[in-house]
Amino acid sequence: MDKIFKRTLVGAAVAFASAGVMAKQVGINSDFDVDVYGVAAISVVNYDTDETKISTGAVTNKSSGYDYENESRIGFRASKQMFEDVNVLMQIESGYVGENGDGATLGNRDTFIGLDGSWGKVRFGRMLTPMYEIIDWPYANPGLGAAWDWGGDVKYNRDRHGDMARYDSVDYNGFRFALATGRGDKDVEDNYFYGASATYKAADFITFHAAVETESDRQLKEKVDEAWTTCTTAAGCKDADKVDVNYGDRYKSTNAAAATMVDTFGYLIGFEASLPGGFGLAAAYKNGESEDLAAGGKTSEQSSYSIIGQYWNGPWGFKVGYAANEESKTGSVKNDDEDSIISGQIMYVHEGFVPYVRIAQREIKAEGKESDTFVVRVGLEYGF
């Protein structure tokens, strides 16, 4: 019995070792060039928010204390030559870890298969649109995203999106461009988007950016079906005009509403400049509109801008930024929904590690409320 046990144990050890060797050989002997990369990033942040109801002026403090935000992620890239001047490439990248790992699934961020060569690069899958790639960098850091990236009230661009085909050119003496198209929502008929961007490095110290995006038949809100609720008392049927005359104990809790379908168009122009003495400046302006196809072509429009200054002295860096969404308009009616963020950051770079401290003041208007939030964030990032 003891011999059988020993033989079983040795056999299991050999099998385990063999499996390890095989796994190792797959990684080493593969003729694909494989790269593992990622970012380790965590910060502790405190949001101190006073929310004011615009119609009454009532103020509520909605602060909940500090929180840890984990933006760590990992990705894998591989490539191999298929034909002369044609390489096959792929990438799969996880999302941020987040609070409990729900967003960290592989494929959450840029994940695609494509081809590249001296003629450029074409990819298919999930990626940043050309316009959003420029919105996000260099014009959102430090901490301007809640207004500049996604805080606008008029939706006229996608961000990271699947069902996309994208072409990126090679560098033509400082000029590069990108083109993309795809389905906005595969379940909505005739919903397609098209985007383009261009970057021109006019000199060593200045680069210009421009981008445009348009989309047809975008569904902003899904269709809502009529719904009825049973009430047990006459007082419970509070919406008398909606009471079902055939069933006195019911009232309509949800009115039927058609889906909100729009055509959108947006553009961006901006620049970034390296100035003498370690100073730098970046600024951008974007504007977009959304035409409601079911409301007689009524159009909503909004403009936004971002300005960022920075200064580097050896490993020390300082950034200050301001971003704002101007008041949107629907037809000729203003919507009282302007937003703004002012933010400052100090950071230190050493051996690839970047500890930083950031403070920001946010003023956001939405749904009849104005939120004033003071943000303090202390974090550490390391890219590999």
Automatic annotation (TrEMBL):
One Gene Ontology term from the biological process aspect of the record:
monoatomic ion transmembrane transport
**What region holds the Porin domain?**
12-328
Task: Identify its membrane topology class.
Answer: Multi-pass membrane protein
Q: Does the keyword Transport apply?
A: yes
What keywords are annotated for this sequence in UniProt? Answer: Cell outer membrane, Ion transport, Membrane, Porin, Signal, Transmembrane, Transmembrane beta strand, Transport
Location in the cell reads: Cell outer membrane
Residues spanning the signal sequence:
1-23
Q: What would you give as a GO molecular function for this chain, any one?
A: porin activity
Q: Name one GO cellular component term.
A: pore complex
State the Pfam families in the record.
Porin_4 (PF13609)
Concerning InterPro entries, the annotation shows: Gram-neg_bact_OMP, Gram_neg_porin_domain, Porin_dom_sf, Porin_Gram-ve, Porin_Neis
What is the name of the protein in this document? Answer: Porin
Protein source organism: Vibrio panuliri
